[in-house]
């Protein structure tokens, strides 16, 4: 009976989907999208939207040769260009390269010593906005002596563990990527002056770059100190983590600094509606449920909006996936945002 219902649900879903949704679903069903979804919180890789310049900070733990690559989802348009510049912790350019989507995107190799680095990337998509795909992934991989990619444990790239922050976006928006369920980040309400702060920061960085080698000694120390202070904000505009659909239990803790409306949502790639069901609860410090939601029917995701007082909260989730592990997606993104403040 359950099998019959599942088949009936799948049939109804196929009829309800548009041609574009079916195409996305078919593309997703051919591969396991776990790596792509996890990239947003993986110290070795990160996903970005096309347009604008983005940064991916990472740490190298051992000397060796490293490879930098870009990729997009199967079925996405390959009419794009990726430009990348590798910087050391002093902001000096080490290497740069570019790649076209028709040639499998960006591929760059460089020998690195232990230390902190930043990969600055710019993705430009050509054609109309209707062409498939609006994001790409850049990945840092360690190579062995024969030029083969090493595993995550052997790669020499710090695997993270905790909270990752690549700096504020152009609009001043800050995102914490959490890849450790013991790490706790604080959530902040939208700041009206974020855009002004971002513009000011950009102008300051431009002025510093224009000065070139004119700054010395104390000015370098001051710049380094300022960067350290900005490296990890006291609170973020949003907190993001990636989870396996079948995961169950407490997966994320966050602090609310000011009372206000907090949003906790889940999402994955379009075209997978009805292939899974997610449930979430928000627990307070005493373990009591203060809000909850669960997907129903073809609405697979949870979407919680609730007013929370200052304090620490934990997100508990339970996921159910329909079909085999090779069909659809296996992971989803959990996102926490504070929408406003309240007295």
Explained architecture:
Residues 1-16 form the signal peptide. Keywords: Signal. This is Peptidase C-terminal archaeal/bacterial domain-containing protein. Residues 219-228 have a biased composition (Acidic residues). Residues 191-218 have a biased composition (Low complexity). The structure is a single chain. The protein has 343 residues and is of the alpha+beta class. The chain has 5 helices and 19 strands. The protein has helices at 2-16, 19-29, 34-38, 194-211, 218-231; strands at 45-49, 53-60, 64-71, 80-88, 93-100, 107-112, 115-125, 135-143, 163-164, 175-178, 184-187, 238-244, 248-256, 260-267, 276-283, 289-294, 303-308, 311-321, 331-338. It has a 6-stranded mixed β-sheet with strand order 9-10-12-19-14-17. A hairpin with a 5-residue loop joins strand 15 (276-283) and strand 16 (289-294). The radius of gyration is 22 Å and the shape is globular. The relative contact order is 0.16.
